[in-house]
Specification:
The structure holds two protein chains of two kinds. By secondary structure, chain A is mainly beta. Helix content of chain A is 11%, strand content 53%. In chain B, the strands form four sheets. Chain B has a four-stranded mixed beta sheet. Chain B has a three-stranded antiparallel beta sheet with strand order 1-4-11, with helices on one face. Chain B is α+β, with helices and mostly antiparallel strands. The relative contact order of chain B is 0.20. Chain B has helices at residues 2-16, 59-66, 85-98, 141-148, 165-168, 186-191; strands at 25-28, 31-32, 46-47, 50-53, 105-112, 125-129, 217-224, 234-238, 255-257, 266-267, 271-273. The chains are: A mainly beta, B alpha+beta. The interface between A and B is large, with 44 and 42 residues.
Chain lengths: 243, 279
């Protein structure tokens, strides 16, 4: 469920022109994808309704810092984000219903993203790359920690020294950043990244595989971020840098 | 004798003026694209004159023709929404018949359209056009974009009606109780009671057309064939709506939706030929 919300939250960053980090919950992906959130439905229980609660940030929870785009969304409990130099940031959260935050670029590209999760304590659901395209509308995920598995397994793709499982999931008649739409989520799942190590995500490998085997083509880049999501009362801390 | 000549002259004059613009339609003078932001600018595309709705089709208008109102947000002057492309095709023909105009569409409900490979579309009527009819119809994508951009009067604004989206369009930030900022979020929109607004309540564009950016997305006639081999074809919509982001409200933005698709942000604007082709 949270992932679903996350997708909508994160996909909304359309007006800024920098990078975003996205943290996406892992185990909730499939259930989120199956959750109905059609516009005719009553407001789902447990979804974010109180906007952003931030520390040392703008109240809307998005902005630019050192040329990077950043975002933080929090519901329940408490959370704050601190901007470090360049692409560095840290998020502290406690007893959150849901928290999503990160840093990256807008628009994204088929670039090699460098990152280092220097510290990750407490509990979380997902850490990885999140982005989307328009025309066609596609949401994509690269799961570095946690899991984004769920949907229809397509194939595996090797990149950066390991193998990801590519799942795709179609969302039908769902509210989205372009309005009610039918679109696909592409999710490359790995989850084996260690902390305190310089890592890379060669987006070209993922994107080329999506183009070749996803069956939907690929659209125009919107934002692309490294993000973390934690939900269901979790508490923790992350300090990460993206470049 | 003189009186007779005058009467004849007046009759001829009145007859020639009977080409007056129908109610709620605006005559769009044709030509090449002036709007430099258009996808069709400089591509050699030239359009003939045509009529297009001054406003999006309202629920009052829809109900008068169809006898129902499928809209989520109710109000006579609100744009009709939650209508599929097929619903809109039927609406066009029914309204044409009500007004004694030759229907523009041939609708064969018994023959599945072989070109429609969208698995989510369980209707697949074969719909063809009667190009010589001047009944109501959906605009083509090129007509829509030409009109939204101001036609020959275009000032090449990004949005239909101006450079400032909040003055010309209802979209996700300004269509609810509070002005939203930051990140698009469906839960935020729900909690903020975002919705449609009465047609014609924002600034018009260069041609006097309202809400071509925002309020509800508008069906066009054309198919969009996505470039993926599994990507289902859909009918193009334009203009963005109350739910979507600002970039969707740019006149040049294009996206499609299966023809059976319905949403509370999906409506239509009518169009008509000003002259049958060849006249």
């Amino acid at each position: 469920m949270k992932l679903n919300k996350l997708l909508w939250e994160v996909t909304g960053k359309v007006t800024s022109s920098a990078a975003i980090l996205t943290l996406v919950a892992s185990s909730s992906i499939l259930s989120a994808c199956n959750k109905s959130s059609s516009t005719s439905s009553p407001k789902p229980a447990g979804i974010r309704t109180t906007g952003y609660v931030l520390d040392k940030t703008q109240p809307t929870g998005t902005g630019t810092s050192n040329g990077y785009f950043w975002s933080l969304y929090q519901e329940g409990g408490s959370a704050s984000i601190t901007q470090g130099s360049a692409g560095n940031f840290s998020i502290t959260y406690s007893n959150v219903t849901d928290v999503v935050g990160g840093k990256g670029w807008n628009p994204g590209s088929a670039q090699t993203i460098g990152y280092n999760v220097g510290a990750l304590s407490g509990s979380y659901n997902f850490v990885g790359i999140y982005g989307w395209t328009t025309s066609p509308l596609i949401e994509y995920y690269v799961g570095e920690m946690g899991s984004v598995a769920g949907g229809t397994y397509v194939n595996s793709v090797s990149s950066d020294g390991h193998s990801y499982s590519f799942y795709k999931f179609q969302r039908v008649n769902e509210p989205s950043i372009i309005g009610t739409a039918t679109f696909w989520q592409y999710k490359d799942n790995w989850g084996g990244a260690p902390t305190a190590q310089n890592r890379s995500v060669n987006m070209a490998n993922h994107i080329n595989n999506w183009k070749n085997t996803g069956g939907q083509g690929f659209g125009s880049y919107n934002y692309q971020i490294l993000a973390l999501e934690a939900y269901s009362g979790k508490s923790g801390y992350i300090n990460a840098t993206v470049w | 004798m003189v009186k007779l000549l005058w009467l004849t002259a007046i009759t001829v004059a009145v007859s020639s003026c009977s080409q007056k613009t129908p109610d709620d339609l605006v005559l769009v003078k044709g030509g090449a694209f002036v709007n430099t932001r258009s996808n069709f600018y400089g591509k050699g595309v030239t359009l003939p004159d045509f009529y297009i709705g001054k406003y999006e089709v309202t629920q009052e208008q829809w109900s008068a023709v169809m006898g129902n109102n499928p809209s989520k947000f109710k109000g006579d002057k609100l744009p009709v929404e939650t209508v599929s492309w097929y619903d809109c095709i039927e609406f066009c023909n029914k309204r044409s018949k009500q007004e004694g105009l030759p229907p523009y569409y041939h609708i064969n409900k018994d023959k599945k359209d072989p070109a429609n490979t969208n698995a989510l579309d369980n209707i697949k009527w074969t719909v063809t056009i009667n190009a010589n009819a001047n009944g109501y119809r959906l605009p083509t994508e090129t007509e829509w974009e030409y009109a939204a951009g101001g036609g020959q009067l275009s000032k090449s604004y990004p949005y239909s009606g101006g450079p400032a989206i909040d003055e010309t369009a209802w979209y996700w930030k300004n269509s609810g109780d509070q002005y939203l900022t930051g990140t698009w979020s469906w839960p935020l929109l729900l909690n903020n009671n975002n919705k449609t607004h009465p047609v014609g309540s924002k600034h018009p564009n260069e041609l006097g057309l309202y809400d071509m950016s925002g309020n509800v997305r508008e069906w066009c006639w054309d198919w969009q064939q996505p470039n993926g081999n599994e990507a289902p074809p859909g009918r193009i919509w334009k203009g963005g709506g109350w739910m979507g982001a600002d970039f969707c409200c740019e006149s040049s933005f294009r996206a499609s939706y299966e023809a059976t698709g319905k949403g509370p942000d999906q409506g239509l604007r009518l169009c008509r030929n000003s002259q049958p082709p060849g006249q």
